[in-house]
């Protein structure tokens, strides 16, 4: 999946750092504009998919550039970083100051970005209870509709990956004889793969460093707050769009 073009039009380092971290588990890396001139240049030349904008920078010139981009791209989204605006621009959402938790950010964003419908998830896990949990939760979702397929044999995952063409691949890392890690390494060697979410039990800092050195997966511990189904749903939606 090609990366989305994200522009952060903000001179507050707190927000700039926060948004870099918020998209660190995707292939979409935000471009930071700290000045009016730089922001206008990026909007006019970059054809962005998403802009995060300090409302102080919403001048008539900026509003006109945003409207031009929206006219050519109906899926274009603009989010305000902070309350209020100095220009009459139709923001697609507002993130109040201070920045929300990552889970709240993903949940809010997931309801305001264009998503594939249906959204296909391939779950590679040998625990049938996990498959039941995914199917029970996602089969009741709409806007978008989700289609979940489970593979309980990691050796068959590559074949189903090609046949099913998932928007997001969810992989349990704990398999006998390191089969999960071998499959992950094989994915990292491919040029085109779907966004990957590693779903696992307790994981050490060294293991995270090892995984980050091979690829750029989102990593969630099953027992963590981020491992709850609503939080996973928001993360899967973000990955399906931003890669």
Task: Give a quick summary of the entry.
With 243 residues, the chain is α/β, with parallel strands linked by helices. The chain has helices at 13-22, 36-46, 60-72, 102-110, 128-138, 157-164, 179-188, 205-214, 229-242, and strands at residues 6-9, 31-33, 50-53, 77-81, 93-95, 119-124, 146-151, 168-172, 196-200, 218-221.
How does this model look, in words?
The relative contact order is 0.13. This protein starts with 5 loop residues before the first strand and ends with a helix. The strands form 2 sheets. It has a 5-stranded parallel sheet with strand order 2-1-3-4-5, with helices on both faces. Helix 2 packs parallel to helix 3. It contains 9 helices and 10 strands. The chain folds into 2 domains: 94 residues, Response regulator (Rossmann fold); 124 residues, Rossmann fold (3-Layer(aba) Sandwich). It is of the alpha/beta class and 243 residues long.
List the helices and strands and how they pair.
Blueprint: E1 6-9, H1 13-22, E2 31-33, H2 36-46, E3 50-53, H3 60-72, E4 77-81, E5 93-95, H4 102-110, E6 119-124, H5 128-138, E7 146-151, H6 157-164, E8 168-172, H7 179-188, E9 196-200, H8 205-214, E10 218-221, H9 229-242
Parallel strand pairs: 1-2, 1-3, 3-4, 4-5, 6-7, 6-8, 8-9, 9-10
- What CATH calls the topology of the largest domain is Rossmann fold
Largest sheet: 5 strands, parallel
Number of helices: 9
The count of strands amounts to: 10
Task: Give the terminus-to-terminus CA distance.
Answer: 6 Å
Radius of gyration, in angstroms, nearest whole number? 19 Å
The CATH class of the largest domain is Alpha Beta
Task: Specify the oligomeric state.
Answer: single chain
């Amino acid at each position: 999946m090609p990366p989305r073009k994200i522009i952060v039009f903000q001179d507050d380092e707190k927000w700039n750092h926060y948004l870099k971290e918020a998209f660190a588990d995707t292939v979409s890396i935000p471009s930071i504009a700290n000045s009016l001139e730089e922001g206008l240049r990026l909007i006019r030349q970059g054809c962005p998919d998403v802009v995060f904008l300090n409302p102080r920078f919403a001048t008539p010139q900026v509003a006109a550039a945003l409207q031009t981009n929206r006219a050519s791209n109906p899926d274009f989204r603009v989010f305000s970083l902070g309350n209020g605006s100095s220009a009459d621009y139709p923001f697609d959402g507002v993130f109040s100051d201070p920045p929300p938790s990552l889970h709240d950010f993903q949940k809010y964003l997931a309801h305001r970005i264009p998503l594939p419908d249906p959204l296909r998830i391939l779950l590679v896990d040998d625990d049938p209870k996990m498959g039941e949990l995914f199917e029970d939760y996602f089969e009741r979702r709409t806007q978008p509709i989700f289609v979940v397929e489970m593979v309980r044999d990691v050796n068959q995952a590559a074949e189903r990956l090609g046949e099913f063409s998932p928007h997001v691949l969810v992989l349990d890392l704990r398999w006998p004889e390191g089969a999960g890690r071998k499959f992950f390494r094989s994915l990292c060697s491919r040029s085109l793969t779907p966004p990957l979410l590693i779903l696992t039990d307790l994981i050490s800092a060294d293991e995270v460093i090892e995984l980050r050195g091979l690829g750029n997966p989102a990593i969630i511990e099953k027992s963590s707050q981020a491992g709850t189904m609503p939080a996973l749903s928001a993360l899967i939606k973000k990955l399906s769009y931003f890669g």
